[in-house]
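Design review, sub-item: ligand-bound model
Attendees: FS, YL, KQ
YL presented the inputs for the 6-O-phosphono-alpha-D-glucopyranose complex:
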Amino acid sequence: MDKAQILVASNRGPVSFSINEDGSLDYRRGGGGLVSGLSSAAATTDTLWVCAALSDADRTAAANAPEARLDLAGFDLGGMRVRMLDIPPETFGNAYTRVANSTLWFVHHMLYDTPNKPRFDSAFRAEWEDFRAYNAAFAEALLTGSADNARVAVQDYHLALVPRMLRGRRPDLRIAHFSHTPWAPPEYFRMLPAEIGRELLEGMLGADHLGFLSRRWADAFLRCCEVFLRVDVDWARRTVEFGGRVIDVGVHALGADAESLRSRAGAADVDEWRTALRERVGDRKLIVRVDRTELSKNIVRGLEAFRELLREHPEWHGRVTHLAFAYPSRGDVPEYREYTEQVQRVAKEINQEFGTSSWTPLVLEVNDDFPRSLAAYRMADVLLINPIRDGMNLVAKEAPALSDDGCALVLSSEAGAADELGADALLVNPYDVSETARALRTALEMDDDERRARCERLVESATALPPRRWFEDQLRALK
Ligand code: G6P
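KQ shared the predicted structure:
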């Protein structure tokens, strides 16, 4: 790899700050593939990560030391520099909550209940102005922070306009944009106001290389370019010609970081959780799911599938427990608050219908606890992952890699992970509750040898492109 400076830009950064009782600031490393992917690249290169301040503590940190050189505990990041942007709260709220999360996320995950939403009125157009301003703040920070010929890796739908903003002013930069979400097909993307759809596509086409997690999402993007920009796509090479340049579109199927996960999952706090969970569920079979409480994760239909299994197969009463960890997410979006209540309501109904004095069929936990999730990954007999649509779904890859005795995977065909894991998972249509219930039963009743053999193959596919190589592949594509 050459040594040119690397810049990364993402809305959520690699650290979050908190304020101690004595008023001093502390920081904590965030999770995710991108942070571990950078560990190799950053160790040998000058790296600057630009992100948004997301909390009051982040804003205090950003105001006191806009650019910090941080050693992220446990990771040799070679003292990577992190620059947090203190974007005015109203601009940030409109860009992040309204445009990015309530609109672009909904479009790419096809989440709208169309009789009422979306509605693109003058209020939305004002929010869009703030989305532009927020993208411009990132572009400005990247321009200020970059040396000649630096490589810039822009992340996700929040920052779709950044590549073009950079290109216009600094043709020397080599720019990649990576989408961690699915991409909407033209039939759905056309819901966006025409000028805004075009601005998004043209914004991304400012990059030299565009990366997606699945071929399905890359193809959908290319089709949108054909339909809305009327550009020529070379489908054999998977390139688009735009503005006198050729942009290539690649698929980089991020895999699990088995090494670092296994070392974390072997720690004492995870063992303690394992013992505690085992005491709670006894020797019953365990169905596990771990998600953010996120509309696209389809938690309610998953719970309903468990209910249907219990209704139709009383022989499983008292012999199975469903551990559902649904961690808080995006509480500023009203649909998420309603969905969280719905998840809790259905969970309660299931326990009322089937629970006995000695058996709680469903254990729903809503507070985020990473070591407890790892303990559950190790113990799961069956892993349920049934999103309506998902860029990848790393849990589908991480949990099998940690399994103590092999787990069976019930997986939505609409997750990017189904591309690699489809052969050994039990694939389901996420809308089909009955099919999901049948798959859960098949998974519970799978014989031990078959379950272990399938899980071994799942792990092989799930770890084929670890974060480090995933990131290096993208940098290499910039040459
Ligand atoms: C998805 C997105 C990420 C985002 C994450 C958590 O994985 O692709 O960009 O950071 O969700 O969402 P949040 O809104 O809490 O950052």
